[in-house]
Write a structure and sequence with these properties.
It is a single chain. With 229 residues, the chain is an alpha+beta fold. It has helices at residues 47-75, 81-106; strands spanning 2-17, 22-27, 34-35, 40-44, 109-111, 116-121, 128-129, 134-151, 163-167, 176-183, 192-200, 212-217. Strands 1-8-11-10-9-12 form a six-stranded antiparallel beta barrel. The chain is elongated and about 100 Å long. It starts with a strand and ends in a 12-residue tail after the last strand. The model has no long low-confidence stretch (mean pLDDT 90).
């Protein structure tokens, strides 16, 4: 019976960072709250960005009209091809500016990238964000991965897809069905190989990220003589 002690980690652990700057005018989440992917967590003041979008829309519409007028002239053999090409390039630049303005306005509504539980929050109502500012840490513990370090003499007994049993001291007697999902091809400094085992988090005997867990595997590699203690 092979047995290794490791640490349970969240299947997905995301630190949400701001992609925009501005003052928080709406805050819709708390620490410990369950959120779903795409849910709006906060809104940043967007007055300036709405004005920029309106300006970009007007510039793009004007550029489209200029191109349409000049194309009509060219069909009548009036004007030059060089001027038409210049107007088309202006239209491409105006449409690029419009796309950028739309994205900047969309970034004022910060949404959850994954479904999970809010582990920490770094902003409050009225806070001023800057690009790269931390907003929240969201973890998904509906499934957990247990990372154990396996010595080199046992590492070939585990491969992706292998079935193992996982237990935890916080729930004596409870067993979780685990599957090996990754075996590192590289050893660490102590010549052990990190192995990841994925388990479903039980509603009756739940685990949290950071708890110790034991991974057990019955080695059926061959027959052996045993002597009772």
């Amino acid at each position: 019976q092979l047995s290794y002690v490791g640490t349970a980690r969240a299947l997905r652990d995301v630190m949400l960072l701001s992609e925009t700057s501005g003052r928080v005018v709406s805050l819709n989440f708390e620490v410990g709250q369950n959120v779903r992917a795409g849910q709006v967590l906060l809104v940043v003041d967007a007055e300036v960005r709405r004005a920029a979008l309106a300006s970009a829309q007007a510039a793009a519409e004007q550029a489209r009209r200029d191109v349409a007028r000049y194309e009509a002239l060219r069909r009548q053999n009036t004007g030059t091809e060089v001027e038409l090409e210049r107007l088309r390039l202006q239209l491409a630049g105006a449409e690029a500016q419009l796309t950028q303005a739309r994205r900047m306005l969309a970034d004022t509504r910060v949404t959850a990238p994954i479904s999970g539980t809010v582990a920490s929050r770094s902003v409050d109502m009225g806070s001023t964000l800057a690009p790269g500012s931390p907003i929240a840490n969201i973890v998904d513990i509906s499934r957990l991965k247990v990372v154990v370090n396996v010595p080199e003499q046992d590492v070939f007994k585990l491969r992706p897809g292998s079935r193992v049993q996982v237990s935890a001291s916080v729930h004596p007697g409870a067993r979780f069905a685990g599957v090996v999902t990754a075996v590192s091809p590289k050893a660490d400094e102590s010549h052990t190989y990190p192995v990841e085992v994925t388990i479903a988090n039980s509603g009756q005997t739940p685990l949290k990220a950071g708890m110790f867990a034991r991974v057990s595997l019955t080695d059926k590699g061959g027959r052996a003589l045993t002597i009772p203690r």
